[in-house]
Design a protein that fits this description.
The complex is a heterodimer of chains A (114) and B (115). Chain A has one domain (5-113): Sandwich (Immunoglobulin-like), CATH 2.60.40.10. Chain A is 0% helix and 50% strand. Chain A has no helices and eleven strands. Chain A has strands spanning 5-7, 10-13, 19-24, 31-37, 44-50, 53-57, 64-68, 74-78, 87-94, 104-105, 109-113. In chain A, the strands form two sheets. In chain A, strands 2, 4, 5, 6, 9, 10 and 11 form a seven-stranded mixed sheet that branches. A four-stranded antiparallel sheet of chain A has the order 1-3-8-7, with no helix packed on it. In chain A, a hairpin with a 5-residue loop joins strand 7 (64-68) and strand 8 (74-78). Chain A starts with a strand and ends with a strand. Chain B is mainly β and 115 residues long. Chain B has a single domain (3-114), classed as Immunoglobulins (Immunoglobulin-like), CATH 2.60.40.10. Chain B is built from no helices and twelve strands. In chain B, strands 2, 5, 6, 10, 11 and 12 form a six-stranded mixed sheet that branches. A four-stranded antiparallel sheet of chain B has the order 3-9-8-7, with no helix packed on it. Classes of the chains: A mainly beta (114), B mainly beta (115). The A-B interface holds A 4, 33, 40-45, 48, 50, 55-56, 58, 90, 92, 97, 99-108 and B 4, 32, 36, 41-46, 49, 51, 90, 92, 94-108.
Chain lengths: 114, 115
């Protein structure tokens, strides 16, 4: 079975531009979460979606938005990019939102803002 | 609010030696605890988790962790490490919030295994 797939794997953008990152969850998984991992830090929670509805939001500005599609894939959008948005963006999928349910992570999208 | 503190940013150790990676958490409510491993240029992989029951949890690759409620700790241990264990290790805590669970990760501990 395919794991969580993210695209693209690497991306270089200029300050002020907009970017869209994509995530396909494991088949049968209905929940997708997004994380930002700055170099040398742990992942920071951005969004959680379940059954196409936003179920959680981390402490990120409104420039960050996301959505989940009927096939449970998801997109993360970041507008007006700043240098500080440079990071590894991780997507994780899980079967449900039951506490303790294992989350499976993709390999991430490395975003560099110049 | 909840937080996770990984006390060591880097732990160097020789191959076949034991290792302990420390994790302390703070939370006003009951939590679930996790350890993840991240190899270079990869996503995170679950090593083990504590939900309830026995405080000693066994995970993959020979790792285990012990939940200590009184000390609010969840330290990760392995009796004998291999070169292939060189990676970044993250402790995480989740709690229920409005029907979903929101994870908080520590800053990570870099385990460096020397031959």
């Amino acid at each position: 079975d395919a794991g969580v797939t993210q695209s693209p794997t690497h991306l270089i953008k200029t300050r002020g531009q907009q970017v869209t990152l994509r995530c396909s969850p494991i088949s049968g998984h209905k929940s997708v979460s997004w994380y930002q991992q700055v170099l040398g830090q742990g992942p920071q929670f951005i969004f959680q979606y379940y059954e196409k509805e936003e179920r959680g939001r981390g402490n990120f500005p409104d420039r960050f938005s996301a959505r989940q599609f009927p096939n449970y894939s998801s997109e993360l959008n970041v507008n007006a990019l700043l240098l500080g948005d440079s990071a590894l963006y991780l997507c994780a999928s899980s079967k449900s939102l039951v506490d303790g349910t294992e989350a499976f992570f993709g390999q991430g999208t490395r975003l560099t803002v110049v | 609010a909840q937080s996770v503190t990984q006390l060591d940013s880097q732990v160097p150790v020789f191959e076949e030696a034991p290792v302990e990676l420390r994790c302390n958490y703070s939370s006003s409510v009951s939590v679930y605890l996790f350890w993840y491993v991240q190899y270079p240029n990869q996503g995170l992989q679950l090593l083990l988790k504590y939900l309830s029951g026995s405080t000693l949890v066994k995970g993959i690759n020979g790792f285990e962790a012990e939940f200590n409620k009184s000390q609010t700790s969840f330290h990760l241990r392995k009796p004998s490490v291999h070169i292939s264990d060189t990676a970044e290790y993250f402790c995480a805590v989740t709690r229920s919030s409005g029907g979903s669970y929101i994870p908080t990760f520590g800053r990570g501990t870099s385990l460096i295994v020397h031959p």
